[in-house]
């Protein structure tokens, strides 16, 4: 399998994954049985109790055709208090229930002496490859994904990405990181920070796929035509841009919730570079969180007191977000493997079409 192209000009972290941000871990559970091609992916911002030690966060709804759960309170209070879970559209309720049980088991005061917990589950529709009506995802799948959470993790057709499509090819989970360094007149005013991205990539039309500015989708369509394969079985001239992408961003920079919302908005820049126009039928959501600050559950609970970065110091982080998001999408495409699922539907990876 050829390596994924490197996009952008910024250096990557040591593993080129979201887990280059210290403390972040990722875990998967994959369901791959005949017509069931789906799963769960979880992202932990840190290893402590998230309900008692929340992290600041912000979100941007680039296009809101989606059924995610927990965004309303995140946008209001600016914190994350459970692991972030990714799954298919119809599995959102069962995964949210598993998150609630997990939080109560760790903190029995939740919903009684304390406030209720805000589960955070984000989704894409994998119904082309996965029999989504089977509702195969269980609470155990979420628990198992949490148990697998680690710094090193697979990308491509795994976890929540198992049944996802991207640009008419096989999509899925992708991750990347970029270094944000103050330059010019601000050089040395802050240390180097890491921005990491993880995507659940399930969007786009083949004809629009761009890699490093090259119209790769057009080249792939020509190759498909030469071997008598329909260029894109579901694509017609007027077919709308269906599908979705969830973009998770982590950074060790000390940022408050308002600044993190600004960070999350820049994910759209990286998404657009790959050929997305955020079509009517696309659910495009970005969440950014910082491990550089903590928010206690109650008054008197320990929380870190860190002064957020100055607004003028945010530009390197914005650049890192755009590049890490673009690279994560490319990595998802290149890491993916072929999947055949419901009714014999098949998605092939981009790597199958790189040579005649």
Automatic annotation (TrEMBL):
Give the species: Advenella kashmirensis W13003
* Keyword Nucleotide-binding (UniProt): no
Q: Which family does it belong to?
A: Belongs to the peptidase S58 family.
Q: What is this protein called?
A: D-aminopeptidase
Going by the UniProt record, its keywords in alphabetical order are:
Aminopeptidase, Hydrolase, Protease
Q: What highest taxon heads this organism's lineage?
A: Bacteria
| Presence of keyword Protease | yes
A molecular function (GO) term: aminopeptidase activity
């Amino acid at each position: 399998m050829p390596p994924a192209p490197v996009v952008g000009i910024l250096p990557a972290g040591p593993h080129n994954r979201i887990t280059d941000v210290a403390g972040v871990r990722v875990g998967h559970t994959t369901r791959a049985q005949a017509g069931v091609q789906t799963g769960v992916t979880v992202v932990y911002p840190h290893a402590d109790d998230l309900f008692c030690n929340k992290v600041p966060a912000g979100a941007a709804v680039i296009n809101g055709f989606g059924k995610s759960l927990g965004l309303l309170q995140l946008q209001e209070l600016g914190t994350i208090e459970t692991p972030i879970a990714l799954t298919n559209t119809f599995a959102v309720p069962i995964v949210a229930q598993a998150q609630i049980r997990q939080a109560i088991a760790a903190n029995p005061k939740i919903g009684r002496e304390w406030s209720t917990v805000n589960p955070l589950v984000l989704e894409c529709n994998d119904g082309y490859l996965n029999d989504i009506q089977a509702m195969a995802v269980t609470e155990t799948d979420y628990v198992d994904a949490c148990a697998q959470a680690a710094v090193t993790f697979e990308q491509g057709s795994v976890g929540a990405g198992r049944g996802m499509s991207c640009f008419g090819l096989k999509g899925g989970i992708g991750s990347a990181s970029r270094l944000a360094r103050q330059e010019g007149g601000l050089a040395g005013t802050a240390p180097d920070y890491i921005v990491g991205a993880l995507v659940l990539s399930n969007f786009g039309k083949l004809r629009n796929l761009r890699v490093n500015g090259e119209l790769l989708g057009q080249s792939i369509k020509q190759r498909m035509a030469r071997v008598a394969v329909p260029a894109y079985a579901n694509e017609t001239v007027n077919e709308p841009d269906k599908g979705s992408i969830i973009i998770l961003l982590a950074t060790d920079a000390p940022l408050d919730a308002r600044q993190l919302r600004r960070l999350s908005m820049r994910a759209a820049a990286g998404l657009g570079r790959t050929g997305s126009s955020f079509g009517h039928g696309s659910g495009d959501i970005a969440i950014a969180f910082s491990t550089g600050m903590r928010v206690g559950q109650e008054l008197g609970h320990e929380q870190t007191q860190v002064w957020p970065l100055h607004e003028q110091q945010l530009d390197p982080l914005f650049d890192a977000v755009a590049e890490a998001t673009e690279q994560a999408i490319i990595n998802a495409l290149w890491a993916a493997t072929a999947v055949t699922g419901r009714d014999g539907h098949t998605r092939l990876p981009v790597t199958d079409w790189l040579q005649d």
